[in-house]
């Protein structure tokens, strides 16, 4: 039902095509909201977004015979997006969230608009939406205009089955025709945070997989480096109290349980490990708390009504209200993706530090750069350089987008969130982070190999086996980029998980 999407629902929509169905209660709410618009127009009231211009032009009253033109013109004039097209699965998420938001019955749109969105979602026919051009208030105007123009007006492009067609041709292929927009419908389609939220969810779902793989990589590295599990003692973390820290320590204990490598160095004279090993619960636990908080915030936003103005109707008393507000302002999304960007940066940064330990014979006790006959062979030397380069890129991108408001629309929209490009850059940080973790996993697996015949913990051994099924042991120097790509893809696909 609209307003009740759960995390697993959104993840499923992100992962594969879907076929949404609305209940009778939702259709009733849609009809009542559309009827309220008719009553408001018949009353002769001047209402923003219904019979006025937009933004700074809100004082311009539009005559009744031109209200359809007003909405069409609004959509076309706002199709100012630029840059590469958003990924198909991100657009699918945005389409479902836009449909669900409109179906809650506060937007004043008619049934045909909702039915059109549902038809295209079921056909997995997604409008082609340029990624750039939104400041995250009044919502995602430019990208949502491209969504509306293609799906409703047949202007622009639509992707079906991997093929991009002119929108009018795509609609005809699906047995559909352009829709003439009614009062309030154009602005209802354009106002909202569905694009920035879809981008934020994409970054979140990536981060969830990366986090799991990073914890596994950290445990595998610790075992390869003969690190201590004493810092994971539950008593340490209980007295601090942070839930993420407590959970991460428990997971690390479970991952390392039963390791013959670990058992082999009990009673050694090493006092403490470097922070990148010892402080994993504190660092990764804090990251986990951020991910949990972001998940909750984006879930609220995914179910929210974020267009403007909003219609509150009471058909019994004829007490309809059309209230202008600011639910389109994407500040909650902007803060969420900024926080997620920082967490991902830290996940990658601490992973690279463990990788640096693994390749340094003075710190690891392993062969230099994890390869025998080093000197003749460079082993993981430049793989660590690649990881360091990606860490540096992530740091550069991690500057918070939410603090960089630039006034727009002749100062009517004088404070904006920048959530949309903040979310896009968080996705790029996540992609870099997946590569860093992939490299660490390869290096940690190589380090574990150096301890044979001693075996790592059973859970970690299963991960090691997955890695070795795709990437063989590094015996002599070879063309390494495909190995890194294979490991990165395993992280991105969720193959290295905790479940």
UniProtKB/TrEMBL annotation:
**Keywords for the protein's UniProt record, in alphabetical order:** Histidine metabolism, Lyase
- One Pfam family hit: Lyase_aromatic
Instruction: Tell me the GO molecular function terms.
Output: histidine ammonia-lyase activity
- EC number per UniProt: 4.3.1.3
Which residues does UniProt call coiled coil?
Answer: none
Q: In which pathway does it act?
A: Amino-acid degradation; L-histidine degradation into L-glutamate; N-formimidoyl-L-glutamate from L-histidine: step 1/3
**What GO cellular component term, any one, is given?**
cytoplasm
Instruction: Please identify the protein, giving its name as recorded.
Output: Histidine ammonia-lyase
**Source species of the chain:** Iodidimonas nitroreducens
